[in-house]
């Protein structure tokens, strides 16, 4: 029997009516002769609501308690989805991440999956049940509940598809697939029939929240081909898979905007070997992921380091830097949160020139100032004023003719 892993996101299970509709979809997949494993997210907005409540009772809640709390959202929808299926006469069972055999490392709020024990799910599939697994969570070796970072239900689905050697992995969401830009921001964005892992990874890590970036990394590592599609219709979606030669014919595949980054400037530090190492070691020890890094060297042996971090880590970053400032010759830390990162992504950049010039000119034509620039083999990113980010996305989209691809 073919085996399918389906993941339904927060909007798709947003209320009881939608959960019932999802149950019908799952039933139809099973009636077609498939074994079905389903991953569900919390109802849309629930995770944010829980975070807000945590902050209302304690400005800096501990990460273990945060995970205890956030795991609830997904537990509600799994149980309801299993009940809805049972109501349709389909045998179904719901599991937390831990019950489903998903073991993670010890870090709370962004834990990594270490292993999956497929036996509990295999046993249920053999008994003819649909298995509904809570997304975004696992258990560590001490039996503590952990969560996998925002958007982590995507990772649960892809990791389960790999561990269970599924024939198909479908990520159901509230748009028809992966578009050339966020279709809510760029109205003439186009749905892509397919995209390479690397492009999807760069778009996801640049702010396209349609897929969690770590889930794409996982899919690439284990060769899990997956389809992003809508749970509200039956249109074909976007296939995410290994790069094939003809993909390079398109220079830019998509545009992404990230408004959740903060810029930190550490100014007036000594321009000598070891200064940057000390600054970034402090951030690494605090488990903070640094994105863009720029160093300016001034006169008199003084340098400034500018970098971006996720906004949720700003406070932690500033705190972790305090003890090293003296060691790097004094220095001041300044934070700017009203920024956005605009990125253009495409494997075709490997073989085409002039992409940066075209992007910078398009932004210049509408007087959008560029603050920081970084590039990779298949991506160019710029930091700009957050107020102009959506406009910049439309301008870049048009400059590369993406409405026509
Ligand atoms: P889910 O709850 O199903 O996981 P998300 O809200 O996490 O859904 O992701 C889907 C959203 O991602 C869409 O509603 C869309 O606004 C946004 N998005 C951003 N960039 C893109 C893109 N390039 N293609 C499709 N959707 C995108
Ligand atoms: N509920 C979690 C979040 O909102 C995980 C997910 O939806 O994928 O981030
Ligand atoms: Mg999501």
Account of the 3D structure:
There is one protein chain. The chain is an alpha/beta fold and 405 residues long. The protein has eleven helices and 20 strands. It has an eight-stranded mixed beta sheet with strand order 3-6-2-1-9-11-12-10, with helices on both faces. Strands 13-18-20-19 form a four-stranded antiparallel beta sheet, with helices on both faces. A four-stranded antiparallel beta sheet has the order 15-16-14-17, covered by helices on one side. α2 runs antiparallel to α3, α6 runs antiparallel to α7 and α8 crosses α9. The longest helix is centred in the first third of the chain and has 25 residues. The chain is globular, with a radius of gyration of 22 Å. Bound molecules: adenosine-5'-diphosphate (ADP), aspartic acid and magnesium ion (MG). The site of magnesium ion has 4 residues, from loops.
């Amino acid at each position: 029997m073919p085996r399918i892993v389906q993941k339904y996101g927060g909007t798709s299970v947003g209320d009881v009516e939608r959960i019932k509709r999802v149950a019908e979809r799952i039933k139809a997949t099973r009636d077609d002769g498939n074994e079905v494993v389903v991953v569900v997210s919390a109802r849309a907005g629930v995770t944010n609501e829980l975070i807000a409540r945590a902050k209302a009772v304690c400005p800096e809640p501990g990460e273990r308690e945060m995970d205890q709390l956030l795991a609830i959202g997904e537990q509600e929808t799994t149980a309801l989805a299993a009940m809805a299926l049972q109501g349709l006469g389909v045998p179904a069972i719901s599991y937390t991440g831990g019950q489903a055999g998903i073991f993670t490392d010890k870090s709370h709020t962004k834990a990594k999956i270490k292993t999956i024990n497929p036996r509990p799910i295999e046993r249920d599939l053999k008994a003819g049940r649909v298995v509904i697994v809570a997304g975004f969570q696992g258990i560590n070796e001490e039996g503590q509940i952990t969560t996998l970072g925002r958007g982590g239900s995507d990772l649960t689905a892809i990791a389960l598809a790999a561990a269970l050697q599924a024939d198909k992995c479908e990520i159901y969401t509230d748009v028809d697939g992966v578009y050339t830009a966020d279709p809510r921001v760029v109205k003439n964005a186009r749905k892509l029939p397919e995209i390479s892992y690397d492009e999807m990874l760069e778009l996801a890590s640049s702010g396209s929240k349609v897929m969690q970036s770590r889930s794409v990394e996982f899919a690439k590592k284990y060769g899990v081909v997956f389809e992003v599609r809508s749970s509200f219709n039956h249109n074909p979606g976007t296939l995410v898979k290994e790069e094939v030669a003809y993909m390079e014919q398109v220079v830019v595949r998509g545009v992404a905007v990230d408004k959740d980054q903060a810029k930190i400037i550490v100014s007036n530090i000594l321009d000598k070997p070891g200064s940057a190492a000390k600054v970034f070691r402090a951030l690494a020890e605090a488990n903070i992921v640094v994105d863009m890094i720029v160093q300016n060297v001034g006169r008199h042996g003084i340098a400034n380091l500018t970098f971006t971090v996720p906004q949720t880590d700003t406070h932690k970053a500033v705190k972790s830097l305090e003890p090293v400032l003296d060691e790097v010759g004094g220095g001041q830390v300044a934070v700017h949160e009203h920024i956005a990162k605009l990125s253009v992504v495409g494997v075709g950049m490997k073989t085409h020139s002039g992409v940066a010039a075209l992007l910078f000119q398009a932004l210049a034509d509408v007087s959008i100032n560029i603050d920081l620039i970084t590039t990779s083999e298949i991506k160019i990113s710029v930091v700009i004023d957050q107020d102009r980010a959506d406009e910049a996305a439309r301008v870049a989209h048009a400059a590369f003719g993406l409405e026509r691809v």
